[in-house]
Every structure is written in C-alpha cells, then in structure tokens.
Design a protein that fits this description.
By secondary structure, the protein is mainly α. It has a single domain, classed as Clp, N-terminal domain (Double Clp-N motif, Orthogonal Bundle). It is built from ten helices and two strands; from the N terminus they run H-E-H-H-H-H-H-E-H-H-H-H. It has a two-stranded parallel ribbon. The longest helix is centred in the N-terminal third of the chain and has 16 residues.
C-alpha cells in the first residue's frame, strides 16, 4: 500500500512517528497522524485543516492534556526521601543522561518475537489499530475517488471516516464538524483537479 503514497503522504507518516517519539508516546495514534497533517508540507490536508481553524500548537496541547504522560522513574515520595538524605534525583538523572544519552533509563523495548513465517516483528513504535484503520481507509478513499495515489487529502479523509480516534475527538472538541471537514476536503480536491 505504501508504494501508492505520494511523497507528501509518506512525509506525514514519518512526521507522525517523529511526533510520537517527541511526545514520548510508545505508539503512533490517530492524534499523531493529525499533528503530522498540520505541517505546511502536507498540502491540501494542511490547507483544509487550517481553514477549519485547527493548528499544530493547539492539537499538540490537546494531545498532551488527553494522553497520560509516561510513568516517572521515581514517585514523588521516593524523590523526596532521596532529597532528605542529600541526593538530588534530578541531578542524578541529568548526569546519567549526560553520560549515557537521553532516555538511558527508559524501559527497553520488548524482545523481538518470531511471528508467522518466522519473520521478526519490529520493536519500534507501532501504529495503534485505529491509526492502521486510518491508513486502510485512506486507500479506500483514494479508490472511491478513482485516484491512483494516496495523498495527504486521502489520509485526512481516512482520519475523518474513522471518526472514533483521539484525532476525531480533538477535532470535534475544537468545534469542527467531521461532516463539514469531509465536504471541505472533497471541495478542495475538486478545485485542485
């Protein structure tokens, strides 16, 4: 399927991975795809989303508010206990990261498992089932429109059509009608043709 993606659509998928990593999320969800679509390199999808009043800082803020932060290494009580005996946990963490690199104390990724036909499964950040559904729906949208490629506009249509992920919630909480956003995307496609 990815061979049908335009360069801009591939860029969205890559940016979604980067966004998830920067937010320290162990998955790539619909919210990360939405955030990636808000890059000005995303063409039609960017134009439609900005026309609806959606921007990256607002979406990033909502993601941070709605998605639980990764667990802390120490509980506040443990950190305070260390401080009482003269150990500054923040200084210790800073020195560890200085010596061994950022994220040195993050839990290791799961060990590779052998799946069907003895292929190794990736241990990297994975797409959530809803994000995978968005990618599948983007293909269906392209086929429905008789397009031979999958562009950012198809990714946006897939995101809208999925309609139940965190991205849809962020959009509707911002007062955007998914039906209106779909019409605006289709109108933009019609103008571009």
């Amino acid at each position: 399927m990815f061979e049908r993606f335009t360069e801009a659509a591939r860029g969205v998928v890559i940016r979604a991975q980067v966004e998830a990593h920067e937010l320290h999320h162990p998955h790539i969800g619909t919210e990360h795809l939405l955030l990636a679509l808000l890059s000005d390199e995303s063409g039609t999808a960017y134009t439609v989303l900005h026309g609806a009043g959606i921007d990256a800082p607002r979406v990033r803020s909502e993601i941070t508010r709605l998605v639980a932060a990764p667990p802390k290494l120490l509980s506040p009580e443990d950190a305070e206990a260390l401080r009482t005996i003269g150990i500054d946990p923040d200084e210790v963490l800073a020195r560890i990261e200085e010596s061994f690199g950022p994220g040195a104390l993050d839990p290791p990724p799961p060990a590779p498992r052998r799946g069907l036909l003895r292929r190794r499964r990736s241990t990297g950040t994975r797409f959530t089932p809803r994000a995978k559904k968005v990618l599948e729906l983007s293909l269906r949208e392209a086929i429905r429109l008789d397009h031979h490629h999958i562009g950012t506009e198809h990714l946006l249509l897939g995101l809208i059509r999925e309609g139940n992920g965190l991205a849809a919630r962020i959009l509707t909480d911002a007062g955007v009608s998914l039906a209106d956003l779909r019409r605006a995307t289709l109108d933009a496609l019609g103008r571009a043709a």
